[in-house]
Amino acid sequence: MIGPELTGEDFSGLPRKSEHERTRKPGRPREIDPESLGRAVNELQFVLEQNWGVAGWLLREAKSISDVRNAFAQIVHQSCGYLEPFRDNQTRKTDPNELRALRKRVVELQVRHRRDYARRQSAKEVFGRASEAHTTDSDPVRQGQLRAIVSDLGCKSQEAASLEQTSRIELELLRTQLRECEAYFAQTEILGFLESNRRQFTPLNVACAMAGLPHVTARVSCKRCAECGIKPSHGIAFEIFRTIERAVQEPIRDLGRSIDTMRGRLLNGPNNNQGDAAQLRKNWYFLESAIRSAARDTSAQRCSLAFRIFADYIRTSTSHSDIEAALAQANRLLKDGKQPELERGPSWGPLRKSRIRRDTGSKC
What we know:
Layout lengths: L18 H5 L10 H17 L1 H9 L4 H9 L10 H4 L8 H41 L3 H57 L6 H9 L6 H10 L8 H12 L7 H14 L6 H8 L1 H13 L8 H14 L3 H9 L34
Helix pairs in contact: 2-3, 2-8, 3-4, 3-14, 4-7, 6-7, 8-9, 10-12, 10-14, 13-14
C-alpha cells in the first residue's frame, strides 16, 4: 500500500454509472458501479485463469512493479482492456494525494478546453459568414466596411484557435501524466496485495484486487467485491490447474509413478465426473507430454512444477497440428464402460472460448 484509501475518486473510466452516481448530490463521494466492477472481475479472472501457468507464477514471484508488468505482458492471446494500467511501461511515481489533485486538474482542464473549443468554433463560423458576405457583396461601400470587419473577425478567430490549441496540448500532457501516475499506482498496489499474503493466491482474488484499480486501493476493491456479492466460481482452466497441483508432487522422483497417479485420479478419483477431469481425460496425450517435459527441466525454480505443467498443457492442447490431434484422439483415457464414440475428442485446432456461467449478482 502507498497511502490512505482513495475513497471518493473519479470513476468516469468505468463503463456505466450506477443509480447512486446518477442521483449523487454535489459533495457526496462516488461509488464504483457494482455492474461494472463485476464485469471487470469476470474479464480479469478469465484471462488470468487461461494464463495462470505463466502469469500466475510470475506474479507469485514478483518483487517489483517491473515484475508485475512482465507478468501481465505474458497475456497475449486474450484481449482485456482492464490490463492496460498493469502492463504500461510508462509510469510516474505518485501518492494518493497527488493522484487525487491531478484528477481534479484534468477535470478542470477538460471544462476549460470544451469552453475554448466552443469559442473557436463560434469565431470560425462568424468569420466564415463575414468572409462570404464580403466576397459576394457587389456594393463597393459595403465591401469597404466588411473588409475591416472581416479583418477584425479573422484576428479573433486566430486568437480563439490559438487558445484552444494551447488548452488542448495542456490537456493531452496532463492526461499522459495521469495515465502514467495511475499505472504506477495500480502496479504498486497489486504488488503490495501480492506481498501481503492476506488472501489465497487465486485468479479470482487477484482479479478482485485489480478490478477497482487505479480508482481505489486493492484492499478497497476486494472489500467492495465482497459487499456486492461478486464471487464467481472458478473456471474450468483453474480447476485443471488445481487438479495438476494436487496430483503431481514436487519434485518428481519417479516419473512413471507420477503419471500413473494422475491417470488413476482422472479415472477413479473422487471428482472424476467433474468437467476438469473429463477435459484432462480427453486431452491425456497433451497432459502426459506436459508432465514429461516438466520433469526433464531439472533447473526450474522450486514450487514451479504445477505452473509449468499447466502452461505447457494449455499451450499444446489449444494449438496443435492435425497429427497431434490424431494422436490425442487415440490416447484418450476412457472410464470403465465408456464407449470411445460417445466421448468428444480433442479440438482440431485452437479451442474456442467457452461460456462459463458466473454469479455476479449484486447486493448493493
